[in-house]
Each structure stands twice: as structure tokens, then as C-alpha cells.
């Protein structure tokens, strides 16, 4: 898991004074590649420290700020005493500091102070346990958020900028510069022209990639992985190894931590090809979906711009039991993105799998080093390798027919009924991707520990769930196979070996191209004023609905002067637009006579719905598009929002006896702004309903139709069905409601999540945590809730108890329901997105005791 501010403590404070020095160093035997962590040595008169910082923009900014602080002192002035630091220093006696490193040159003093936070040590192992020489960067284990790194050579910002201007860059320097944050318009223009002229100074060289996927069904490694990873092949240049269902425990699902990450990492490391030495570039994990990237040691220096991201597509579009993880990187001059996904299960759920794929593509975004550039999506790469348990099944054939065709090795007949083939042909998913011929038998489902097909009660039909696809130029697939020798899981691992043509820089041609670009820039008039034209300046969004994206687009067309554009904040505002609006991209760079399309995306969610319901906010905004060294352009945004029960308070809905869309806007406004009363205040308002009718409709539907539904509240519904459910609730046309049980269940969870005041009010949140485990005290807390909130809580607990009575059919248990509903009914009033594990467990325990007892 990623380290947050709550995980660290202030250990030591080092003032930046005259004897302060901070520099990047390379440890003996350390393999360096762009994207690795930064090793830093700090020296003062009193101590010497060597430590590692995670690569990324935060580290780069930190080092730049420290360097900038150092020369700011007046040489004639006395060192400051840093008295303000005294209250932060340790009170206990400090150990004797180590002796300063000999020969360290003191830096110019600075006015700041460097604070060191300690979150546990990190190491860089130089060899595998078996002595085969795998280089492992353990500090990047887990879900770290990689970004690009400041060059490891000790070059200052000004030195690098001068190198661009003087055209005396070596190939390696060029790789560093193109991954650096830009220092001005001129450097951006240089990079843009270099990208355009890439074919002038690069050539194609083939590198061998191994791509493997394995659904391990929650098992620990029990056998050597060499038959899968390295048997019968030449040593690959790059390994991309993905796992699914790494850990199926509830702890991994709800608390995202698992010891199996390290177990499988070590198993893979020991199974890599014995004829080469590999460096781990990155590990990324989302619950049970894990992706590992290794490269041969000699290629490490040519890896740069490493980023990793995750997208959960499970219930409520967040849970990580399904979804994808991805690593993108630059290899020489070719951008590569590797995606590992685990899509929705069950034969009939192919539309849900399609939706998962589209969600991963749209939501997977990688930050760029240059903040003026928009995030990169999966499609914006030269090479895309997509692996994983895609879960597409074989349709229209019964189990015995499928097994018979497998015995006859009639794989083409089987493939004709493959769901993925049909969906790709319909251009529903993986448009433009390629897949090799399936010449191996289906990889799912086997009895664990054998090669026998599933003999359980469910008797799943065999299917090619585990796949490898690719997209891009200069890619040749050399093999595509399963590995029957491995029997740990109910899936068989799959591998594919590729030769991929990568663009490699010719140093001499690169220098010549760069010199030509710089000479042409010298001729440009730097004082020219940029000017653009906009295809549209007024945007109207009609009938905006809760959680239904609307997009309006326009084109920025540039004139004769290169320019940078950005949407900027208006005076006294924290963002360039309101929360329900975003521009994509919000900033960028345009060469002369070029154009770019900007999409304005409007999306109302739980954060913004309540004020739009009440009329405190409206679909109205002004965007300011600013040109660097140019003028500002003003864009007008308007529209209307259709109020929804989603985002409305419980007590408001209890007073709405008519569907919300049948009420006048002024009535909705008054009821939404009405204060929540603990008891009847004697007002003249008509007596409210005990619980919101919308909640009653959803729970009744589930009680009638889904009381025995397997995986209820764990499997996501379909987005189009949610929109239909929302419209039925907001218009009161419940008789027209037609949706799957999973979509209704997810709509119920989204409804509870959207409540501005949760079912258990914020005011008693901490009391609930304190009395979790004490049912009597917990009931007393519930009794203090306002009547409408208390009624909703009792009603939901009674429904969940009914579900548990049918656990033999629906496979639900109290822990699962308590975990899901605990985070919705009990929400931290501080609005923290990520709760501590102990806090999550207390909320779960509080709900669990009511599920096992009558409220």
C-alpha cells in the first residue's frame, strides 16, 4: 500500500546552514535506470546520512526547492539560529552523530530547513536468494504512484537548459531532458519538433518481450514458475508478468493488504530466465490484480518515464476485486503501456465485461512530467500489451459438447463461439487490437492440483478466460501458449513472446536534428504575440442528470506563433471551473497552424448534487482560457439540472410524497434546505413518511427478486440500467422498472453513498466507534438519531438480516455485509477518503452486531 502522511512521524530536523550539502549519489553495485528511486547523501558538520526518495515529481520538486534555498543567504550575514525548530526537536537525548564524510564541500548556506520523515527503511538488493543476480528495488513494492525522476547526473536546472540551447547533448542527456519538466516555451517547442522529426534520428531495433498472465485463485506459490516463465525460450529483454485473484480473502478486498504480494513476487523473481540478470522496474497491485515489469540489466538505462496506475471496476465502480492495473514507460524512444485486467465473471455478463474494458480505457490516466500536458491514456502509446483474465466464455455450446471438441482439438470450432471473438468483431471492445491464434486448449476451469475439468457442483464449461492481446506497429508474435505443467490454480497460466521493434536514437543524427531545430528557433521573433481562434464560446447543457456524463467540445486553432494555453482560476476562486465541470485537456501547447479539440465534461456526483437540488448552485460558469504572452478568452457555460433523489437528504425525501420531478423547484429548494430535527418541532409541515419512498422501492424490489441472488452487493450492475433506475425513482414510474438484481443493489448503495448526511448522522460517528462491540450502548446511540434516520437504519438492518437467512443460497455472510454497509452508513465527518484500517474495522463491527441481533 502507498505510504501516506499518517504513516510517518517527524524523526529529525536538519537546518540548511552554511555547512549543509545535499547531493544525489550512486551506491556501489546499484543498477541505475530512469524511473528508479533517487539515492541522496546529506552532509552537515554534525551528521552524514544516505537515504532513498521515491522517484517522481514530488521528489524532484523537493530537491529543486532545497537547492534553491541554499544560495539565498547573504554571505556576510550570520547563520540563523532556527529557534522556531526547538519545539519540534526530540526531548530525549540524541545519540552521538556519525563523523562527517571526509572531503565534502560545504554548499552555500540557505534560509530553510530540511525535514526528514521516517517511514521505515528501504533497500536495494543486489542478488536473488538463489544467487542468480536479480536486482530488486523493494522500496517500490505495492501500490506506489510512480512518476518521472530528476536526472541522476549532478546537473543543475540551468546547466540542462543551457545544454538544450547550445545543442551539445549526448544521446543519454537527450533521454533525460525529454523526461524533465519544461523550463519555458522554448524547451516545449524543441521537444515538439523533436517528436515530429523522430524518424530522422532513430532506427528500429527488435527486443524480445515475454508477456504472461496467471489467475492463481487465491493460492500461494507451490511450484517453480520456470516452466511458465523461462523454459524453452531465449532470455527475454523485458518481462511483463500479471496475476489475478492473488488473494481472495476479505482482508485483501476491504483493507487492500496481503502477504501474497511478496510471495508471488519472489516466486516470479526466482523463475526468470537463468541466462540473464534482470532489474525490477515496477510492481503495481490492486487487491488481487498485480503486474510486474522487469528488464535486462543492460537495458535499464534506457527505461524512462515510468508510471503506474490502477482502476477498480467492482461494485460502485470502485472496488478492486475487478478492474485493471497498468504500467507505462519509455523504452529508448518508444512509449509502451502494459495493462493487466480482471473483468467481470459469469457467462451471461459479457456486457459487463465490455463495460469494464471501456471503464479501464477511459479512467486509466498517467500523469506526465510536464504539467502543461494532459494525462496520457492507454491509447496514447506506441505499443499496448493487454493481458489478464478477461473472463470471456464460450457460448451456445453445452459443457459436454465443449469438452468433446477439446478432445478432438477442434479449437477453431470452439473459437467460433468465443465471446471475445464476437465482441471484437462487433467493435464493442479491443478495437484495433490483435490476438494470436488459439492453438491450446481452454485455460479454465480445472480442479485445483490436476488437469481435470471442473467436477464441482457448478461444473463450469471450459473457456479461454486468460488472454494476451496487442496493438501497435513493428510487433511480431513468436509464441502464444498455455502451460499445463502448473497445477496450483483452477486456471492455467498463459504466455506470449513477442519481438517488438523499438525506436533507438542514433546519437549523431539526433545531434544534427537538434542543432537544426535550435537554429530555426533562433530566427523566430520572441516578442511575437500568440493568437488563436475558438470554434465555439457558448455551451449549453440541457437536462443534466445525476451521474450521467454530458460532453460539449470545441476546437482551438492556432495562428503563426507557438503558444501555450491554460484554463486559469478567476479571482478568489480555487479552481478554473466548478466541481461538476472539467476541461480535457485543461492546458497544452500548440505549434503554428495546429489545432486541438477541447472537451468540456459535465458530471454531477454525490459531491455536487445536493446544492444543485437545492438551487444553491446552478449549471452556470465562466471559463477563462489564457494564452501565455497572449490574451484571455472567456467561455460561457449554462444549462439546467434535473433534481434527483440521489444527493437529497433523508428528511427531505420523507417530506416528498410526490416524485421529486413532479414538485416545483421552489418546493424542492425549501425542503432540501430545511434543517434536520431530532424530534418533531411542532412545525406546520405535513407529517413525513417514515422512510423515503425511493429507498422503500429499491429494498422491496430486492426482497421480492434477489433474496437468494448470489454475489448480491458484490457484483456491479450496468451503467445504462442505473440511469433507468434513477429515472424511475425520480419520476415515480416504478411499474416500468426493469433491471438486473445487481444493478438495483448497486443503485441502493449509490443512493446511500449520495446522502449528504449519512444514515447514522455525523454527530454520533465517534460515539458509534467507541461503543462498537457493546450492543446495548450502540442501541442507545441509534435511539438518539432523528426519527427518519432511525427508521431507515432499522429498516435496512431488517432487510440485511433477511438476506443472511438465505446465506446458503446467496453466499452472503455478516462480515461481507458489515464491511460494505459499514462504510456507507457510518462516514467520517472529516470527509476523509481513506480511513485507517482500525477505524474501518470498528465501523464494520458496529454494523455487524446489529446484523446478528435485532436493532
From TrEMBL:
The Rho-GAP domain is annotated at: 683-855
One GO BP annotation is: signal transduction
Q: What is its EC number?
A: 3.1.3.36
Where does this one sit in the cell? Cytoplasmic vesicle, Phagosome membrane; Early endosome membrane
**Domain of life the protein comes from:** Eukaryota
Query: Where does the record locate the signal sequence feature?
Result: none
- Show the segment(s) annotated as Disordered: 91-161
Mention one GO molecular function.
inositol-1,4,5-trisphosphate 5-phosphatase activity
Q: Where is the composition biased (Low complexity)?
A: 110-121
Key words, A-Z? Cytoplasmic vesicle, Endosome, Hydrolase, Lipid metabolism, Membrane
Cellular component per GO? cytosol; early endosome membrane; phagocytic vesicle membrane
Which family is this sequence assigned to?
Answer: Belongs to the inositol 1,4,5-trisphosphate 5-phosphatase type II family.
Please give the name of this protein.
phosphoinositide 5-phosphatase
From which organism does this entry originate? Phocoena sinus
Amino acid at each position: 500500500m502507498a505510504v501516506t502522511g499518517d504513516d510517518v512521524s517527524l524523526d529529525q530536523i536538519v537546518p540548511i546552514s552554511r555547512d549543509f550539502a545535499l547531493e544525489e549519489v550512486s551506491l556501489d553495485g546499484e543498477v541505475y535506470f530512469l524511473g528508479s528511486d533517487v539515492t541522496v547523501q546529506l552532509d552537515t558538520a554534525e551528521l552524514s546520512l544516505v537515504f532513498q526518495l521515491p522517484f517522481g515529481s514530488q521528489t524532484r520538486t523537493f530537491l529543486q526547492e532545497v537547492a534553491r534555498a541554499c544560495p539565498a543567504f547573504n554571505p556576510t550575514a550570520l547563520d540563523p539560529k532556527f529557534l522556531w525548530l526547538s519545539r519540534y526537536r526530540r526531548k530525549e537525548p540524541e545519540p552521538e552523530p556519525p563523523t562527517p564524510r571526509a572531503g565534502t564541500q560545504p554548499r552555500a548556506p540557505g534560509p530553510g530547513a530540511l525535514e526528514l520523515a521516517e517511514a521505515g527503511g528501504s533497500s536495494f538488493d543486489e542478488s536473488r536468494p538463489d544467487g542468480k543476480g536479480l536486482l530488486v528495488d523493494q522500496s517500490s513494492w505495492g501500490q506506489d504512484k510512480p512518476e518521472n525522476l530528476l536526472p541522476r547526473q549532478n546537473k543543475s536546472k540551468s546547466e540542462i537548459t543551457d545544454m538544450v540551447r547550445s545543442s551539445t547533448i549526448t544521446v543519454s542527456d537527450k533521454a533525460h531532458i525529454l523526461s524533465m519538466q519544461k523550463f519555458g516555451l522554448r524547451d516545449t517547442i524543441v521537444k515538439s519538433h523533436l517528436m515530429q522529426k523522430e524518424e530522422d534520428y532513430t532506427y528500429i531495433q527488435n527486443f524480445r518481450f515475454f508477456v504472461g498472465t496467471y489467475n492463481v485463485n487465491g493460492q500461494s506459490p507451490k511450484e517453480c514458475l520456470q516452466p511458465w516463465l523461462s523454459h524453452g525460450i531465449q532470455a527475454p529483454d523485458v518481462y511483463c508478468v500479471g496475476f489475478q485473484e492473488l488473494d481472495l480473502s476479505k482482508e485483501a478486498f476491504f483493507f487492500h493488504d496481503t502477504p501474497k504480494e511478496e510471495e508471488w513476487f519472489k516466486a516470479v523473481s526466482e523463475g526468470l530466465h537463468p541466462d540473464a540478470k534482470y532489474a525490477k522496474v515496477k510492481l503495481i497491485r490492486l487487491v488481487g490484480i498485480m503486474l510486474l515489469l522487469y528488464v535486462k540489466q543492460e537495458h535499464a538505462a534506457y527505461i524512462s518515464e515510468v508510471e503506474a496506475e490502477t482502476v477498480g471496476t467492482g461494485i460502485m465502480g470502485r472496488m478492486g476485486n475487478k478492474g485493471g492495473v497498468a504500467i507505462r514507460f519509455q523504452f529508448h524512444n518508444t512509449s509502451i503501456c502494459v495493462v493487466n485486467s480482471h473483468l467481470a465473471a459469469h457467462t451471461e455478463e459479457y456486457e459487463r465485461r465490455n463495460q469494464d474494458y471501456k471503464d479501464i480505457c477511459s479512467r486509466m490516466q498517467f500523469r506526465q512530467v510536464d504539467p502543461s500536458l494532459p494525462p496520457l491514456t492507454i491509447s496514447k502509446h506506441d505499443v499496448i500489451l493487454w493481458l489478464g483474465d478477461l473472463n470471456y466464455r464460450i457460448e451456445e455450446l453445452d459443457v459436454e459438447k465443449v469438452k468433446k471438441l477439446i478432445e478432438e482439438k477442434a479449437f477453431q470450432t470452439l473459437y467460433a463461439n468465443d465471446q471475445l471473438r464476437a465482441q471484437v468483431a462487433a467493435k464493442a471492445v479491443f478495437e484495433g487490437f490483435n490476438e494470436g491464434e488459439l492453438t491450446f486448449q481452454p485455460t479454465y476451469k480445472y480442479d485445483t492440483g490436476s488437469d481435470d475439468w471442473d467436477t464441482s457442483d457448478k461444473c463450469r464449461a471450459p473457456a479461454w478466460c486468460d488472454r494476451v492481446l496487442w496493438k501497435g506497429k513493428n510487433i511480431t508474435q513468436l509464441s502464444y501458449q498455455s502451460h499445463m505443467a502448473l497445477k496450483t490454480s483452477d486456471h492455467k497460466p498463459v504466455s506470449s513472446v513477442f519481438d517488438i521493434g523499438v525506436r533507438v536514437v542514433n546519437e549523431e543524427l539526433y545531434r544534427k536534428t537538434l542543432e537544426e531545430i535550435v537554429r530555426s528557433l533562433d530566427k523566430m521573433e520572441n516578442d511575437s504575440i500568440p493568437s488563436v481562434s475558438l470554434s465555439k464560446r457558448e455551451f449549453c447543457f440541457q437536462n443534466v442528470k445525476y451521474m450521467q456524463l454530458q460532453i460539449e467540445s470545441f476546437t482551438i486553432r492556432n495562428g503563426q506563433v507557438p503558444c501555450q494555453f491554460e484554463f486559469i482560476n478567476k479571482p478568489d476562486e480555487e479552481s478554473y471551473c466548478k466541481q461538476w465541470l472539467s476541461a480535457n485537456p485543461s492546458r497544452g501547447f500548440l505549434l503554428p497552424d495546429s489545432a486541438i479539440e477541447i472537451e468540456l465534461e459535465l458530471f454531477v456526483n454525490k459531491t455536487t448534487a445536493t446544492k444543485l437540488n437545492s438551487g444553491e448552485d446552478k449549471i452556470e460558469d465562466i471559463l477563462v482560457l489564457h494564452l501565455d504572452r497572449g490574451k484571455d478568452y472567456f467561455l460561457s457555460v449554462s444549462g439546467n439540472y434535473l433534481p434527483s433523489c440521489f444527493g437529497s437528504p433523508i428528511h427531505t425525501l420523507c417530506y416528498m410524497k410526490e416524485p421529486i420531478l413532479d414538485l416545483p423547484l421552489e418546493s424542492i429548494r425549501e425542503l432540501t434546505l430545511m434543517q434536520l430535527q431530532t424530534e418533531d418541532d411542532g412545525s406546520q409541515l405535513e407529517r413525513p413518511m417514515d422512510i423515503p419512498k425511493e429507498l422503500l422501492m429499491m429494498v422491496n424490489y430486492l426482497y421480492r427478486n434477489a433474496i437468494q441472488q448470489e454475489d448480491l452487493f458484490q457484483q456491479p450492475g450496468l451503467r445504462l440500467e442505473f440511469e433507468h433506475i434513477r429515472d424511475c425513482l425520480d419520476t415515480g414510474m416504478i411499474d416500468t422498472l426493469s433491471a438486473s438484481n445487481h444493478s438495483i443493489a448497486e443503485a441502493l448503495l449509490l443512493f446511500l453513498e449520495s446522502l449528504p448526511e449519512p444514515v447514522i448522522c455525523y454527530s454520533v460517528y465517534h460515539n458509534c466507534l467507541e461503543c462498537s462491540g457493546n450492543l446495548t450502548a450502540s442501541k442507545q446511540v441509534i435511539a438518539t438519531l432523528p426519527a427518519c434516520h432511525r427508521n431507515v437504519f432499522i429498516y435496512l438492518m431488517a432487510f440485511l438480516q433477511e438476506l443472511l437467512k438465505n446465506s446458503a443460497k446467496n453466499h452472503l455472510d455478516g462480515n461481507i455485509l458489515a464491511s460494505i454497509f459499514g462504510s456507507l452508513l457510518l462516514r467520517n465527518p472529516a470527509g476523509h477518503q481513506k480511513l485507517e484500517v482500525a477505524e474501518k474495522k470498528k465501523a464494520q463491527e458496529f454494523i455487524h452486531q446489529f446484523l446478528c441481533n435485532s436493532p
